[in-house]
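During the reporting period the student researcher (J.K.) took over the structure-prediction task from the postdoctoral fellow and processed the backlog of single-chain submissions. One of the processed entries is reproduced below for the supervisory committee.
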Amino acid sequence: MTRRLATLLVAATLALTSCASLTPESLPITGDRNGYDVTLEFASVLNLANRAQVVLDGVPVGVVTGMRLTGAAVRVTVRLDEGVVAPGDIEAVLRQPTVLGDIVVALVRSPDADPAAPPLGPGDVVPLSRTTSPPQIEDTIASLANFVASGAVQRAQNSLIEVNSVVEASDVDLSDIAARVSVNLGDLADNLASVDLALTGLSSTARTLSGKRGAIADWFSPAGMLGFDRATQVGSRLSVMIPSIGSVYTGGFWLVPMLRNLGDAAGAVQASKWAVGDEIPEWWTLFTEYFLPQDRYPAIDITSIRTPDGRELSHSVSDVLRMLGATP
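J.K. obtained the following structure tokens:
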């Protein structure tokens, strides 16, 4: 009897020892054994456990099979079920579906995904740039504690109390304020075209400035700044020279009427030039066609002589010459 009891105790001890060595990692994988492995790189995996689910579009598609720390990232190996097709530019996020639930690996499709990109294949790696780790619980709790302990809630409550006291003590009606705000928003909505035009102008200005970045960079380069400095020095020297004949800045206003009179005189000279230019052809015709030929060959051509009663006398040439005194 004693030997049988000892045997039972030894068997119970061995059973308890074998149960104590049973861990979640020793359980068989519940996913598809014929799936393929993919590696995800995370900055931090927080409380992610082995055998955690991998979901795509809310549907479980695999499990976590291992984790390994390498440098600045944690490489998480997941096994996706056979037949699961994930885009090559998929993103991975660690999520907790419920408050008390376990963390899962969620595969999220990128909004800028390329339809022609090859799908995720066995052995592929999702880099750290396309994964998101959850915030540390300690940091979240510390931020919440700082917010509560800093008196922000009390200050917000005091602000509301002061606003209520001001509104109650004044004659301002909240309905009037709401009506004015409504009118202002209505005016803004009616003039959205003007706002859009202004934004379009700003966008065009920005594009123009962007196209002239080289010129602007030259302006503010050492050579450009040297040019600005020299132009400033030249301007300062001229500003000293100009007051010697009458300061344009303070006492040079006497130049204004003089310059105005000079302008009027120049206009009169210009008008006279136009008048002289119009008269020159007439004078040229007078001298070349009338005066000079007559001065060179003085003569009178008589083509017709008529009496007051209409009789033609040109046939009596001798009589005409005698009348003119040309013949005796």
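The committee noted the following: The two ends are 201 Å apart (CA to CA).
J.K. will present the remaining backlog at the next meeting.
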